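Suppose you are handed only two things: the residues of a chain and a line of SMILES describing zinc ion. What would the bound structure be? This form records exactly that question and the answer produced for it, so the two can be stored side by side and reused later without any lookup.

QUESTION INPUTS
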Amino acid sequence: MKDIVKNVDLLCPLCGNKLFDNLDVDCDNLYDASEEVCFKCANCGCVYTESQLIEHNQDVIDESFEDIKDEALKQMEKEITKMFKK
Ligand SMILES: [Zn+2]
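ANSWER OUTPUT
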């Protein structure tokens, strides 16, 4: 699941911007005892943890997961066709 998330453009829940500044260095000041990576929206400046962003973008992630699944199936079909052609 983690790998899929990396391939998805996470959008700012507030403004829909997809550019974020990585804040993992300053994170401790913003969230107590958080080991999570924080992202700051480059547009509106809102700060989110990774899990918050994933939660807000669950639909997009689910869609991408479906795409990846379809792609994998197609690839598999190709391989199987090749196998039978030999
Ligand atoms: Zn924003």
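WHAT STANDS OUT: The mean pLDDT is 82. The chain is about 50% helix and 10% strand.
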